[in-house]
Specification:
Number of strands: 0
Number of helices: 18
Order of helices and strands: HHHHHHHHHHHHHHHHHH
Largest sheet: none
Structural class: mainly alpha
Strand content: under 5%
Helix content: over 70%
Shape: globular
Radius of gyration: 20 Å
């Protein structure tokens, strides 16, 4: 019996490690925040023009999420994840050829497509390895791994922009090459990993997937995902601009604001992995949303570094587990339609298109306080969603 347990544990680790590396690659999409700031600086773009980049990345979630759910029914979740990794790796090599507006649009478009396919297929792939009672905490740990890649992005970009070490003329774009290499490593490891998947009872069409939005709780979860990612991408994109506007500092110095956000988001994911196993989901979610609300207040009124960083820390920590809770709630509500529900929930990442566009226009009209006001609307909805969370 003991030998069997050891064998099963070893087999589980051999499966979960490549899957968690895929979560790391999933985090590469968050480089769009700091990258768009560097492109804005290089090409002298306005806020609304620069915010087109993150909006474009998340536009593809609207187009590809539901079809990816259908694709999983045909070729399986693991094969779908592999396709997403290949697209992601290709997107990261494009900036090697320059940082013109069209080159970066092409790179961010492919990055968005790859990430849409990955997020739709990778989360339900985890359900083949984990029991339902540990799903939320495991997805949270995956978000913790993802957040590591997210907070490393501005550090690597600043290193490329300022280091004397040879970057072959790439400057801050050396970040893309580093992440591309990791993507190819992830492809190799996942391809070599056997994972047993349950087969769906029937293939589904786009109509059947979208029809699930007719279920009130699924619709609530869908909008919740939109608000979560809108706040996430919005903070990622706007944080450097807030510091540059209020403190009059350079893009390299302001870029570390994004790092602060992602460090606390990473800490939040790690602690959430354990807290979600012992705390009421609704209480944990409520505390998270109230932290974000306090953080938005600080971003709105503060003009010095410490309270601004404190606001970003509160938002990062609070927003770290929202996705995992909402996504797992939706999957457990409709357990017989995991692929379809996953496609719908990831389609909700389209909020990453809507929020930055609205924030860009608000910032052009009112300064960065206008962008913060747009994000606060998303926090208010999540506060409402708190009261709709189902008991386990």
């Amino acid at each position: 019996m003991a030998q069997s347990l050891v064998t099963n544990r070893k087999s589980f680790l051999l499966q979960i490690i490549p899957v968690m590396l895929c979560f790391f690659v999933m985090g590469f999409v968050d480089l769009v925040g700091i990258a768009s700031r560097y492109v804005q600086e290089d090409l002298s773009l306005s806020d609304s023009q620069a915010n087109l980049f993150p909006s474009l990345v998340f536009f593809w979630f609207l187009i590809f999420s539901v079809p990816t759910g259908m694709l999983m029914n045909k070729i399986g979740r693991k094969n779908t994840v592999l396709i997403s990794l290949i697209i992601t790796a290709l997107s990261l090599f494009i900036p090697v050829f320059g940082d013109s507006y069209m080159i970066m649009l092409a790179s961010f478009s492919l990055l968005g497509i790859g990430n849409a396919v990955m997020q739709t297929s990778l989360n339900p792939l985890v359900t083949n390895l984990i029991s339902s009672d540990k799903l939320a905490s495991t997805l949270t740990f995956g978000q913790f791994v993802k957040a590591i890649a997210s907070f490393l992005a501005p550090i690597l970009a600043a290193w490329g922009a300022t280091t004397a070490f040879p970057t072959f003329g790439l400057g801050w774009r050396a970040l893309f090459v580093i992440y591309a290499v990791v993507s190819f490593l992830s492809i190799a490891l996942l391809a070599a990993t056997p994972i047993d998947e349950e087969r769906p009872d029937k293939a589904s069409g786009i109509g059947a997937c979208v029809k699930l939005l007719g279920r009130p709780f699924i619709l609530l979860c869908f909008i919740g995902i939109m608000c979560h990612v809108g706040i996430d991408v919005g903070t990622n994109t706007t944080a450097p601009n807030i510091l540059m506007e209020r403190l009059r500092i350079s893009i390299v110095e302001a870029g570390y604001a994004t790092t602060v956000y992602f460090i606390f988001r990473t800490i939040g994911c790690f602690t959430g992995t354990f807290l979600l196993r012992v705390m009421s989901t609704r209480v944990f979610f409520a505390i998270s949303v109230l932290m974000m609300l306090a953080g938005m207040g600080l971003l709105y009124v503060s003009n010095t570094l410490t309270p601004l960083y404190t606001g970003l820390a509160l938002i990062g920590f609070g927003n770290s587990n929202i996705f995992s809770v909402v996504f797992s709630q939706a999957l457990l509500y409709s357990p017989n339609e995991k692929n379809e529900v996953s496609g719908l929930m990831i389609m909700g990442l389209f909020g990453g298109t809507i929020f930055p566009l609205a924030m860009g226009y608000a910032a052009d009209a009112m300064g960065q306080a206008g962008a913060v006001m747009v994000m606060t609307v998303g926090v208010a909805y999540l506060l409402y969603y708190t009261f709709k969370i189902k008991k386990a």
